[in-house]
Write a structure and sequence with these properties.
Layout: H1 13-22, H2 38-41, H3 48-61, E1 66-67, H4 71-78, H5 82-94, E2 99-101, E3 108-110, H6 119-134, H7 140-152, H8 154-168, H9 177-196
Antiparallel strand pairs: 1-3, 2-3
Helix pairs in contact: 3-5, 4-5, 6-9, 8-9
């Protein structure tokens, strides 16, 4: 019995998680699981707590389009203070990752429409795509630090704002506008990486 946790699981992770979610030998609380896109889990530009809160809200929504957990419920779920939850929820709202209504005693939360076109997800995915093309050419730890710096820069915010504006005021002629903006962002990354690692990387 002492070696119970030292044995490797031999099931595929998705199958194993399904089994874990349905286990109810000792308690039937929190059975089930959520669909959380990897794009959200690995979204560059969202903090760790923002991702946890967003996934917790998705879990509360489940098969509905809204949820209204209290701040204290989310704080217990995520493992931080209620003040921190309030701050991170405001940040998620400012980034338009969630919509918040205060019509009830508790906030009511919704997901925005066209989340798959969301600027933060598009920018994140383009950044990951770029990282994948250069990560073997430079020190990976230095690359991680460089990416963190890029996300904080005004240029990153400007590209995100351009995508957001397109998202809000789309015209029929804007069919390929996202690609043009993201391609410009990729070019910006190439130029900045060459400045940071001038002798280490040859980016096409």
């Amino acid at each position: 019995m002492k070696d119970l946790w030292l044995k490797k699981n031999n099931q595929a992770a998705n199958t194993y998680m399904d089994e874990v979610s349905r286990a109810n030998q000792f308690t039937s609380h929190h059975n089930g699981y959520i669909k959380a896109p990897v794009k959200i889990l690995r979204c560059i530009g969202l903090s760790a707590f923002e991702k946890l809160i967003l996934m917790d809200l998705i879990a509360y929504m489940s098969d509905k389009t809204l949820c209204y957990p209290t701040i204290e419920m989310i704080a217990r779920d995520v493992g931080c203070s209620s003040k921190s939850i309030e701050r991170h929820i405001k940040e998620l709202e400012d980034k338009k990752m969630i919509l918040v209504s205060q019509d009830r005693k508790n906030n009511t939360y919704y997901l925005p429409n066209y989340l798959h076109y969301h600027p933060y997800l598009l920018m994140s995915e383009k950044t990951h795509e770029f990282i994948g093309s250069v990560r073997k050419q430079v020190n990976e730890r230095e690359l991680t630090l460089w990416v963190r710096g890029i996300v904080k820069r005004d240029e990153f915010k400007a590209f995100t704002a351009r995508l957001q504006k397109l998202h809000e005021f789309r015209f029929p002629t804007d069919k390929f506008a996202e690609k043009e903006i993201l391609d410009s962002y990729a070019q910006f990354l190439r130029l900045e990486l060459a400045k940071r690692f001038p002798s280490d990387v040859n980016v096409q």
